[in-house]
Amino acid sequence: MSESEIIQKTPEPRTVESISRDLRMLGLREGMTVIVHSSLSSIGWVCGEAVTVIQALINVVTAEGTIVMPAQTGLSDPAGWKNPPVPPAWIAIIRETMPAYDTTVTPTRGMGVIAENFRKWPGAARSCHPNLSLAAWGKNASLITEGQTINYALGESSPLSRIYDLDGYVLMLGTGYDTCTSLHLAEYRAPGAKPYRDGFPIMKEGRRTWVECEDIVLDSDIFPHIGADMEQCVKVARGYVGSADSRLFRQREAVDFATRWIGEYRESQK
Asked: Are 114 and 37 in contact (CB under 8 A)?
């Protein structure tokens, strides 16, 4: 959608004050731990763009709470790339030349402009996984981002698990359940996960090194189905932040529901 089209569909400019008001009406509160998934264009024309949305989130949650956003990079084994795949002759070249992961430099990929600005925000911390990192700001930022392992990146060592321990929330600003990273934690906890190997470049002892890891096959294609069923059982606050159809719910309740759902789904696929 072009900026002109966004302006035409926005009744008035979205500001820090108006977005803060809408977030509070949805149920976001001071001191919450919240993982945010966002689409800037869905909010409407925002005066200050991504920075304004981040300032509004901080304005509501404050430094007594913690804001988390996905910071995935796309640094992975090119042999497994599908959207789009690369020619087989490229794979060795990519493995040899892909820049090593750097928490301060490596950009996000496919996370949206709000998440990309957030991972560079003053005081934000970022977890160490080369492909599946998350960024956090606020009271428990270090607790959430430290300790993520190379193996089983979104499992029990992950920031997702720390958010679960803190009984945090999920906020989706104009996005669907296919963006809900927290549901990946349920994929690890449900029985029947399929193993998967991946690889990426890291800096090790001052040198760029290609490393491989153990993980599981992740499938976000089923997340919209999980979300639709979950809303029949779990309290999901729904409202508009600007023009963005938004949801706020407890991450722990969502993960517990999804763990059961995925377990039953995998059993039915045997």
From this structure: no
DSSP annotation of 46: B
Residue 198, domain extent: 3-268
As a whole number of angstroms, the distance between CA 108 and CA 75 comes to 10
Q: What was the pLDDT predicted at 57?
A: 98
Q: What is the DSSP string of 85-113?
A: ---GGGHHHHHHHSPPP-TTTPPPSSS-H
- H or E element: which one contains 196? strand 195-204
Tell me: pLDDT of 41 over 80: yes
Model confidence band, residue 52 (pLDDT cutoffs 50, 70, 90)? very high
- The secondary structure of 210-267 as a DSSP string is EEEEEEE---GGGHHHHHHHHTTTS--EEEEETTEEEEEEEHHHHHHHHHHHHHHHHH
Whole-structure pTM value:
0.96
pLDDT at 109: 95
- Please tell me the distance from the alpha carbon of residue 85 to that of residue 71, in angstroms, as a whole number: 22
Taking alpha carbons only, the member of 105, 78, 81 closest to residue 90 is: 78
Q: Three-state DSSP class for 209?
A: strand
**Structure tokens, 227:** 């979300």
User: Quick check: 118 and 69 in contact, CB under 8 A?
Assistant: yes
Residue 186 has pLDDT above 90, yes or no: yes
C-alpha closest to that of 134 among 152, 158, 170? 158
73 and 107 in contact (C-beta within 8 Å)? yes
**Angstrom distance (rounded) from CA 28 to CA 19:** 11
Which is more confident, 123 or 1? 123
